[in-house]
Amino acid sequence: MNKSTRKAIIAGNWKMNNTRPEAKELLQAIKPLVANAENNVEVIACVPFTNLETAVNVTAGSNVKIGAENVHFKKNGAYTGEISADMLTELGVEYVVVGHSERRQYFGETDETVNLRTLAALEAGLKPIVCVGETLEQRELGITEEVIAMQTKIALKNTCEKCIKNVVIAYEPVWAIGTGKVATPEQAEDVCAFIRKTVEGLFNKEIADGMTIQYGGSMNAKNCAELLAKPNIDGGLIGGASLKAEDFNTIVQAAVEG
Ligand code: PGA
Structurally, how many domains does the chain consist of? Predict the structure, then answer.
């Protein structure tokens, strides 16, 4: 199995942007632009909780899938302010971002809670987009691979072979997120290939070869083609550039071309 047989996935991560009317407008603009990607690229918009129902309704019948940006790991209970996996699936949500570096940095997310969220998402039938990535300090210390291996291994702890096919990994170097400082295609390729090797060590070659591994961090309409042409980069998790329909579509079209 190689890149051409893996599912390419372009996912927007809107972060804390867009009210419901704004979400509706953006998705209505995106839908016709990306319709031609239906057979080649999975197109996803991960949106704030308050936009989920609107987003699911606006994209119904189209090839745009909807994801949440986080999920709690408990099924229900006294966890004020949190949202469970069942609450998301009931809305028609298919994907969820887990362990984004902003959640690790600002909201106390740890490798252990990333693992629990991944397991909770899978159990409910959601497809987690699990984010891993090193900081600038870690890269400069030469421990990128150690950090990535640790994050990947802990995030996937106790995931069963049957559900692993629903896991997407996003390599997002923290120093490249929202900074305009994109990783070079070679840097991104090296780490995505390393993640695949790590998954092979945890499971087997078939599972590793079949896994979609995205790059994220200042990917935009200008730099996407070079990144997406790399053999181990199967898609992108897009922040800033996902808020503009034309830019997001340019990235989707670059993925169609592979
Ligand atoms: P960015 O964000 O594209 O704005 O750098 C990517 C992400 O955080 O997923």
Answer: 1
